[in-house]
Design brief:
By secondary structure, this protein is an alpha+beta fold. The chain has two domains: 147 residues, Fructose-1,6-Bisphosphatase, Chain A, domain 1 (2-Layer Sandwich), CATH 3.30.540; 114 residues, 3-Layer(aba) Sandwich (D-Maltodextrin-Binding Protein, domain 2), CATH 3.40.190. 32% of the residues lie in helices and 26% in strands. It has eight helices and 15 strands. It is globular and about 50 Å long.
């Protein structure tokens, strides 16, 4: 971890940036969605995705103008000029759950996360305006939830209850078919499954105990950067995909589609159960 940057200070910026994006989403107008397909019947972008990312970037530019910023819609920006050796990189998903947003399903939000120069995730926020929830975490500072204004520290799932698994399905047809084949094995040891359409919120809802575990294949870094840190800081075991940084060209499409993200009880990451849970294609 870089010694030149405070996770708490980054969290302060992240909360303001995520709030700016969420405020854009809160103005949702069905007549102004401007939705267009990215090439799949389930992969969409709206005018709100773009506007929310611009709002997030504006806060980051004002607060930390020399940092690197990677966003889902507007790519990677590496500012010129002087900076210290501990330059921070921000990862933005301005609207995680775009399909939900289009259809007025409440599970969507703005995700903002910051990593130090060594790649360690230091701060993350997932702000879900329709749910009136804000999840946040800083490295070593715990995970927290403001739910309608009531704040509590998160401690992961309650092991005494039956297990509920969250997952999602890829936009890629071949990957989705393999995921469907794996679903029976995934459900071994779980009472039921849910698919909400927002990986960021799925991870946060493992942290708050709504779900007992989350597993999904083919996610992008911006999908999970903030939510995975929230889960970790809540004491949840997290496996992130070991993929190349976007600054090094990022993973290939095939590498990304093969990679698995997991959050849940540590025993499910053991050599026996972990192989089943994470699927035969990992």
């Amino acid at each position: 971890m870089s010694s030149t940057v405070s996770p708490g200070a980054l969290l302060h910026v992240a909360r303001h940036a995520a709030a700016a994006g969420a405020e854009v989403l809160s103005r949702r107008d069905p007549a102004a969605l401007g939705a267009t397909s990215k090439g799949s019947d389930s992969d969409w972008v709206t005018a709100y995705d773009i506007a929310a990312e611009r709002a997030v970037r504006s806060v980051l530019a004002d607060s930390r103008p020399h940092d690197i910023v990677t966003g889902e819609e507007l790519g990677t920006t590496v500012p010129s000029g002087r900076h210290d050796g501990g330059r921070v990189r921000w990862s933005i998903d301005p609207l995680d759950g775009t399909t939900n947003f289009i259809r007025n399903i409440v599970y969507y939000g703005t995700s903002v996360a910051a990593a130090g120069a060594d790649g360690t995730w230091l701060a993350g926020v997932v702000h879900a305006p329709a749910l009136r929830r804000i999840y946040w975490a800083s490295r070593g500072g715990g995970a927290w939830l403001s739910d309608g204004g009531s704040v509590r520290r998160l401690a992961g799932p309650d092991a005494g209850r039956g297990r509920l698994l969250a997952t999602g399905f890829s936009y890629d047809a071949g990957t989705r078919a393999r995921q469907a084949d794996d679903l029976g094995a995934l459900l071994d040891g779980f009472g039921d499954v849910r698919s909400l359409g927002s990986a960021a919120l799925d991870l946060c809802m493992v942290a708050d105990g709504t779900f007992d575990a989350f597993v999904e294949r083919g996610l992008h870094e911006h999908d999970i950067a903030a939510g995975a840190l929230v889960a970790e800081e809540a004491g949840v075991a997290v496996r992130r995909p070991d993929l190349r940084s976007v600054l090094d060209g990022g993973p290939t499409e095939s590498e990304r589609l093969a990679a698995v993200t997991f959050a849940g009880p540590a025993d499910l990451l053991g050599p026996a159960t972990g192989a089943t849970l994470l699927g035969r294609h990992s």
